[in-house]
Amino acid sequence: MSTASEKQTLRQQMRSARRALSPHQQRQNARLLCRSVESQLWFQQAKSIALYLPNDGEIDTGPLIQLCWLSGKKVFLPRLHPTAKHRLIFVPYTAQSKMRLNCYQIPEPMIQGLKPRPAWALSLVMFPLVAFDQKGGRLGMGGGYYDRTFSFKHLPKGMNSTKLIGLAHDIQKVDSLPTESWDIPLQGIATDKDYYPC
């Protein structure tokens, strides 16, 4: 079996598993995730934090976003880059933000009057994944958006201060993931059950 077909099979299995969680389980997992992240020093020290709005059974970041706002942290959401293919920019997000659906039907903030922040200028980025292993391997949806956006992390003296943390339901953990040279490893994964430093 090729790496590409292995990844596709695993994507289907994990997406089905997270979509099968009941609304009650989703809410409970979101609260537990928030508690897990709140206790981490890297979260407490971060000033500018990129998160995401959940889609397709991804673990809900609503409680985390609320916690960030209450703690005086600046929250950013990803938005498809208007000119660079398969890349993201990060737009400030507040309770008053105007939203629109992108081509994947995922809500993203409108830019008008706001100054997007480049990925390297964020203290902390917490993003979704389909599956993960404890070595920092992440399986995404397959579009390569996060890998391209954070490719600066491969540079020997790149702007490496941005901390990359994956967020997931603990059921998305696997023993090992096939990786490619362009995959950006995570520095940790937070779930409803635990925090896995990498």
Automatic annotation (TrEMBL):
Q: Where does substrate bind?
A: 53, 58
Originating organism = Nitrincola tibetensis
Q: Where is the composition biased (Polar residues)?
A: 1-15
- Look up the EC number in the record and give it: 6.3.3.2
**Cofactor(s) for this UniProt protein:** Mg(2+)
| Record-listed ATP binding positions | 7-11, 138-146
Q: Which GO terms describe its biological process?
A: folic acid-containing compound biosynthetic process; tetrahydrofolate interconversion
Keyword hit for Ribosomal protein: no
* Identification of the protein by name: 5-formyltetrahydrofolate cyclo-ligase
Q: Which molecular-function annotation in GO is an example for this chain?
A: 5-formyltetrahydrofolate cyclo-ligase activity
Q: Where on the tree of life does the source sit, at the highest rank?
A: Bacteria
Q: Family per UniProt?
A: Belongs to the 5-formyltetrahydrofolate cyclo-ligase family.
Kindly state which reaction or reactions the protein catalyses.
(6S)-5-formyl-5,6,7,8-tetrahydrofolate + ATP = (6R)-5,10-methenyltetrahydrofolate + ADP + phosphate
Spell out the residue ranges making up region: Disordered.
Answer: 1-24
The record ties this protein, via Pfam families, to:
5-FTHF_cyc-lig (PF01812)
Listed InterPro entries: FTHF_cligase, FTHF_cligase-like_sf, NagB/RpiA_transferase-like
User: What does the UniProt keyword field contain?
Assistant: ATP-binding, Ligase, Magnesium, Metal-binding, Nucleotide-binding
